[in-house]
Write a structure and sequence with these properties.
Layout lengths: L7 H7 L4 H22 L4 H16 L10 H8 L4 H12 L8 H16 L7 H20 L4 H7 L17 H16 L7 H14 L2
Helix pairs in contact: 1-9, 2-5, 3-5, 5-6, 6-7, 6-8, 7-9, 9-10
């Protein structure tokens, strides 16, 4: 998997990552996209669960024990992210295998993404802001793709960990700030696209450069 396999909006957001964090953010996005594709193209639920279990087992192992030949594992092995920080993504996406997710499943995915993103920073006071921003981006993205889930998404968004405006994010996670801003804009306008019109590009530019 390469950057070209990411959705356009994620590629745009990634362009604002500092050089020091770009590869780690890219690897997180690539893994997230891989797991999402397992769920979205699940076919038989049991097959999807087997694929997710494989990733769960790999992320629980020392990278030195990972099998050869999987390009994404090779990328993760060369990166700086602790694989254990990425493991929540597997559980978060697995709960979405249900036919019609309820608030609890939607909330679990949002929180799982938040935990994974917070693994890219050293901790401290910024952690809560990262979890909130990643969680809100997740819920907004789900609303854009699945407007019929609006009621359950509203319930999920009332979780204390997800409610309220997040504080300014570390510069190393500028792509997350861009994704959060674009998703919230799309939801507020009832848009079906995170990149819609020149306003979205200007918003991405502003947030990408200044963080707000």
């Amino acid at each position: 998997m390469t950057v070209q396999s990411l959705p356009l909006v994620q590629r745009l957001a990634l362009s604002y990552a500092p050089a020091s964090s770009r590869e780690d953010v890219l690897n997180l996005l690539l893994l997230d996209q891989r797991l999402a594709s397992v769920v979205h193209n699940r076919g038989e639920v049991m097959i999807a669960q087997i694929k997710l279990a494989w990733w769960r087992e790999r992320l629980a192992e020392p990278p030195s024990q990972w099998p050869k030949g999987e390009p994404l594992l090779q990328r993760l092995q060369a990166g700086k992210i602790d694989p254990a920080c990425l493991a929540p993504l597997v559980d978060g996406w697995e709960v979405m295998l249900v036919e019609t997710p309820e608030a609890s499943e939607l909330e679990e995915l949002a929180k799982a993404r938040g935990r994974a993103w917070s693994g890219l920073i050293a901790g401290g006071s910024a952690t809560d802001a990262v979890k909130k921003a990643a969680g809100q981006w997740t819920l907004a993205e789900l609303r854009i793709a699945n407007p019929e889930l609006a009621g359950e998404l509203d319930k999920a968004g009332k979780s204390p960990e997800l409610a309220g405006r997040p504080q300014r994010l570390p510069r190393s996670l500028r792509p997350l700030a861009v994704l959060h801003a674009l998703a919230m804009r799309a939801v507020s306008r009832g848009s079906t696209e995170m990149l819609a019109g020149p306003g979205s590009a200007l918003l991405a530019l502003r947030v990408g450069l200044f963080g707000r």
